[in-house]
Structure formats: C-alpha cells, structure tokens
Amino acid sequence: MVVTYQRRRQLEDLLTRLGISQEKYGLVHWQLLDQALTHPSVSPTYNNDHLELLGDSVLRLAVSLLLHQRYGDRKVGDLSALRAYLVSDECLAQLAESINLDEYIQVDAHVRRDQKTKRSRIANAVEALLAALYLSTQDFSLIDPWLFDYMERAIATVQTIPALGNYKLALQELTQRVWKQLPEYHIVGQTPFTAEVWFLQRCWGRGSGNSIKSAEQNAAAEALPLLQAYLKQQSQQNQ
Q1: What is the pTM of this model?
Q2: Annotated active-site positions, please?
Q3: Of 34, 103, 111, 217, which one has the fewest beta carbons inside 10 Å?
C-alpha cells in the first residue's frame, strides 16, 4: 500500500504533536504507521489488527521499564496496580484524546459516528501506533520521549484516586484479607455491558461500561466503599 503525499503530511502532523522532530522522520516506516491508523472497517486485509496485538506487548514493556526505572522503590503490589491502570483502555483512550488521535484514524464513516465503540477504537489505535514506531527502529527511540511524559502525568493523577484506579484489585485484596474469599461478578446486561459484584450473598455494586472489564471496574468502584463501611460497622459492633 502506497502512502500518498497527503496522507504522509497528515502523519507528519501527528508526529509533530507527539514531539517527534523532523530529524527523525527518516527512521519512520510510513506504511506501517499508516496501517496502524487504519481501522478494519476500511479494509479486511490492510488494517491495524495485527499491529494492535504487538502493540499491547510493546506498551506493557515500556510501562514496566518506566516503573522499574523511576518507581523501583515502590511495593510490587503498588507497581502492579499502576501498570494495570496505565495499560487500560481508559488510560489509552485519554492519551488518544489528548493528541486528537481519532483525526488521523482511517475508519468507515458509520463506525466513526458510533460513540459507544470510540474509546476502545482509539485505545486500540494507540497500541497499533506503538507497534509501528517500535518496528520502525526496533527500539523505543520514537516512543520514550512522548509516552513516558504522558505516563508520568497519568501516574500523578491516578495516585490521587483511591486504589490507584484499580477498584477491582482493591476489592479483591479486601475480601481476601478479611474473609479469605473472592467477590463474584455477573454480567446482567449488554450494550453497554452491565456488571454486578456479589459477596456474602449480597450485591454490593453495579456498573456499566463499553467492555466487560470496564463494567466490572465500575461495579467494584461502587462496592468498595460500601464494603469498607460494612467492615467498619461490624468492627464497632464487636467492640
């Protein structure tokens, strides 16, 4: 697939937004970059499906290196929670929106209008973008300068949120520590997905999202403070 002059200029504009200088344009594999930003709705063969799969691994390695290099003194549990958030669709979608990535994605007009799938679509495109830039140089030289800066800001933000934004993990740790049991999640609706979290034969939280994962996270976010309050009440009654 030949990258047209107009498309090349568009992709150069994206690289500028990422802070990648023109001196590094010679390192970029333009066809891979174009493919990374081509949704399957445009072409069944020339799209970002495979690059997204590779990009997931590139993202996890980049985030793990960042946490090891700059936050190596933290507990492993804290680092795992941070990594889970940083590689989540929510975090990636926010990154995509910060650089207006959707403007550069080639996608069928009908799909583009579907707001229910937008966040997952642009999050997937971030992973494919990472794969294309990694394959261009076989290293992180086109990735580190902009990805690390964004992740640092995301870490600063998420650390102000209870449980580092991973409510499902925090709820699991609470129930295991106190009752030696795990909560159960039930999907009770779709489009969007709706999940309920059950524990001690009771529904403690209900949440919705564009994926099962996000629905369960939102259910856990509702359940966590309620279960913490219940635990506190039980403790006071036993005194």
Answers
A1: 0.75
A2: 56, 127
A3: 103
